[in-house]
Amino acid sequence: MKNSDLSPHLSYYTTIQIELVNLKKIPVKILKIKERKMMKRERKKFKALILAGGFGIRLKRMSENLPKGLIPCGETTIIGRIIKDLQQTPGVHKTGLISNDKFYHQYQAWLKKEGLDSKIKLINNEVKLPEKRLGAIGDLLLALDTLSWWNNHILVLPSDTLYSFRVNDLLRFFFKHQGMVTVVRKFKDKSEIANRLGCAILQGKRIVKFVEKPTNPPSFYGAIPFYVYPVNILPMIRKYQEEDQSLDTPGAIIPWLIRKEVPVYAFITDQPTLDIGKPEDLTKAKTYLQLVRLYQQSHSIQANN
Fold this sequence. Notes:
By secondary structure, the chain is an alpha/beta fold. It contains nine helices and 13 strands. Strand 9 (198-203) and strand 10 form a beta hairpin. Strands 1, 4, 5, 6, 8, 9, 10, 11 and 12 form a nine-stranded mixed sheet that branches. The protein has a two-stranded antiparallel sheet with strand order 2-3. A two-stranded antiparallel sheet has the order 7-13. The longest helix is centred in the C-terminal third of the chain and has 26 residues, at 279-304. The chain folds into two domains: 3-39, no CATH class; 44-304, Spore Coat Polysaccharide Biosynthesis Protein SpsA, Chain A. The chain is globular and about 45 Å long.
């Protein structure tokens, strides 16, 4: 395969493909070692950004004085569970969290109490009112500029979603596919997607159509707002902004990327997830860990059988 055959946005895969062609006479075992070393080197470049710039308007009074990321879950909080997962993921050696001005000091106090204030880079987007919010993609751009993270692969995570898959598995999937990756869950009922989640139409693992929060979902595949951006695709986020596209929801960029012929892939999970968006979701959050345990137990039994 020639360099010209590869998308300019995916050139960091070139080394592996050229060497596999040009070094055919070298034993396969050596090629696998070279590929593994490259993947290990690439993984060291990963940065994770948690988006926590929302005001929790849909939760009404319940979120007036508490950001969704600090909602209790088990012995910790939603953010606590996310950070623990990131700490256990090889290669994610830096993590940032961006908040609005209203909840910035609460996150700051929580990080200090947990002994994480020196490990998590906390950013204040200085937005004081919901109607002035930058939007998820606006916050992402601000964080990339503030932290100078334009030269790294970026993992973007929500602060208001409970999940039970492992981020490490998501990153492994990313390195097997040449493009942007998001998480997709197959729901049993489309009503769980309608007006709440993005909806994807797939061909294999590739997303060929994406609708953000549709009233009538075109499929049972709902997007869970986790995104992995390859370093070479990051400049396209700025171009997306310059074209006056919607910055509000993080998944809004996916249809735009598809139109630009940038491949977007779905990391498909059947594990429990919960987006904290409505007051009734707070009740569900209290039983979420029990649901995860039941899921794990049922799959353990199936594996043993």
